[in-house]
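Duplicate of #3305? Posting structure anyway:
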């Protein structure tokens, strides 16, 4: 059945749906789009929806980034956006009967628009296809449930439990009773995931107060894996709001508590469906070369893995958030964890990216680095044990401005994303850095206004 045929069946099967929420994902991973009345939905799905091309190059406050080259001085032209197959589904958490669809922008010749992060990842995957390889990918997303955010100046607070108890700073990792405290939220998330075809798997209580993690199942399609991550974040926020809470994927909402990561698991299949990372006697050379490529290009990728000022608060020693480009066997202290529990499940876990990232760009940089390692036969060096890092392991950038500077001149980012997207991303981050430089923080007032 054609995509438009599937859409017709969907609306026939959902006669109560009144509106279609159609959106793209911008440079910061933020959904941006329009509400389309039911009467126009099929026309939009068949013929495309116009959106300004500059929607992909907004800063985190939603403002145009002039230096990105898509808005001012161009006439700010529209591009046509078309549905991503399989993403038309119900929105379960809104009072008004609503459907949603994820869109991707195309150029007039039908090719993907270079500024669309989804197209960036699609371009990277062409390199795997040429080698007869298919990445199998899954993500794990951490987030905090918090009391509703009333303003940007209102401190985050853990939510009350079902019986009204205030949640303290206790870790309570893997607590089942704390999952039960928010049973309605997690039931709503699971129901929404099923309705949208998102393969959500395990839910667990994480280390911080009100912090949880949801794992997604592995899929042999990296584009779908990124779609699922984007849509799951949307579900978590929407369902939390419907239950009188907020959810945040901010990398470090509490300065003294655990940060939110997005861990990426992946392996590679050949044309016969064999996991090329698993040999008869253990991990293969291709796995080790992939690790070598990941470590080699990790520093230049940090502006993607840690895209915001707050992201760098998460990267601290002894918090299972890597500070060195290191690897180890089943070692959560390492940036790259090699997992060999069973031959079919032999894989790599990349542990650097925060949950505040754009999943399309994160997967693009990770998979491109792994592929580069295979092509160049990169040696990863020695594995770490425990928390000890060899002198030869490169420290990762811990400063946002420096990371963006490195990214802006990175030959690896140039090769992976293309020169135009590297410039677009760098311009967006530089505008955000400039805004931060103009904001005086409360800690500065506290320290200096009377004492110096």
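Output from current build:
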């Amino acid at each position: 059945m054609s995509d438009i045929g599937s859409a017709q069946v969907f609306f026939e099967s959902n006669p109560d749906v009144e509106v279609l929420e159609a959106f793209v994902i911008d440079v910061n991973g933020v959904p941006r789009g329009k509400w389309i009345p039911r009467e126009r939905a099929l026309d939009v799905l068949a013929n495309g929806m116009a959106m300004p091309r500059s929607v992909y190059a907004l800063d985190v406050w939603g403002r145009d980034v002039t230096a990105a080259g898509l808005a001012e001085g161009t006439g700010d032209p529209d591009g046509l956006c078309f549905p991503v197959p399989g993403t038309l589904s119900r929105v379960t958490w809104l009072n008004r009967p609503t459907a949603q669809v994820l869109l991707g922008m195309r150029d007039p010749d039908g090719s993907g628009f270079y500024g669309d992060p989804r197209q960036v990842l699609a371009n990277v995957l062409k390199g795997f296809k040429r080698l007869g390889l298919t990445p199998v990918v899954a993500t794990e997303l951490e987030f905090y449930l918090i009391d509703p955010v009333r303003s940007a100046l209102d401190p985050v607070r853990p939510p009350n439990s079902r019986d009204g108890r205030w949640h303290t700073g206790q870790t309570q990792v893997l607590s089942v009773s704390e999952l039960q405290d928010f049973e309605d939220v997690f039931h709503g998330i699971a129901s929404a995931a099923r309705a949208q075809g998102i393969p959500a798997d395990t839910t667990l209580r994480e280390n911080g107060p009100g912090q949880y993690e949801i794992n997604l199942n592995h899929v042999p399609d990296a584009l779908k894996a990124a779609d699922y991550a984007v849509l799951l974040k949307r579900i978590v926020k929407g369902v939390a709001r419907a239950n009188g809470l907020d959810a945040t994927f901010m990398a470090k909402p509490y300065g003294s508590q655990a940060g939110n990561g997005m861990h990426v698991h992946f392996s590679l299949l050949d044309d016969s469906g064999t996991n090329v990372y698993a040999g008869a006697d253990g991990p293969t050379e291709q796995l080790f070369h992939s690790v070598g490529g990941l470590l080699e290009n990790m520093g230049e990728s940090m502006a993607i893995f840690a895209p915001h000022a707050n992201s760098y608060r998460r990267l601290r020693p002894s918090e299972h958030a890597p500070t060195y480009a290191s690897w180890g066997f089943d070692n959560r202290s390492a940036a790259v964890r090699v997992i060999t529990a069973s031959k079919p499940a032999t894989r790599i876990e990349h542990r650097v990216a925060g949950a505040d990232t754009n999943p399309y760009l994160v997967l693009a940089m990770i998979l491109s680095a792994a592929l580069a390692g295979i092509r160049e036969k990169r040696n990863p060096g020695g594995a770490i044990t425990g928390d000890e890092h060899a002198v030869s392991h490169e420290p990762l950038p811990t400063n946002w401005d420096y990371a963006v500077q490195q990214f802006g001149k990175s030959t690896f980012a140039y090769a992976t994303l293309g020169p135009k997207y590297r410039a677009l991303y760098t311009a967006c981050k530089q505008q955000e850095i400039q805004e931060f430089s103009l904001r005086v923080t409360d800690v500065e007032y506290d320290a200096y206004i009377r004492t110096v």
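Confirmed duplicate; merging threads. The CA atoms of residues 30 and 168 lie 31 Å apart. The first strand starts at residue 19 and ends at 25.
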